[in-house]
């Protein structure tokens, strides 16, 4: 029963955390607001982010209310796991692990978006709104790599290099 509760709680919190991270990321890269994926993300997060925004203002491209919600969700996940496993509570550990959990959610989301974008590039036949959104989200990470290592014979290695960096960072933070 305990494992089932851990699974359910972790899955639900992580799924919502990914949506919140996507909102934060889309705002940071100024992704197309009218894209269907953007509309889903905004509608799914607005009931929580909207009231927070009234109290916590944004700073430039960074929506601090959304960032606070993402970190709070990471801390909620860790706190719930600590509570379900009857581990003594250390607030500092919950805060640090919550931050790392949020970073891990972003890295995992970036990893899968890169994989999906790479696969779609093989089968793409013209404009697709989903592919356009994936381009907007990933290009800030891929463009700097392409400036250092340009495509070789039509083969773009930037996705592979960014994926290796993501995996390195995930191992480094240990989440």
Automatic annotation (TrEMBL):
Q: Tell whether Plastid is among the UniProt keywords.
A: no
In Pfam terms, one family for this protein is CCB3_YggT
Keywords, sorted A to Z: Membrane, Transmembrane, Transmembrane helix
What is the protein's given name?
YggT family protein
- Spell out where the chain crosses the membrane: 6-25, 62-84, 96-120, 154-173
Coiled-coil residues: none
The family assignment reads:
Belongs to the YggT family.
Please tell me whether the keyword Nuclease is annotated for this protein: no
The record's GO CC annotations read: membrane
Organism this protein belongs to: Idiomarina fontislapidosi
Domain of life, per UniProt, equals Bacteria
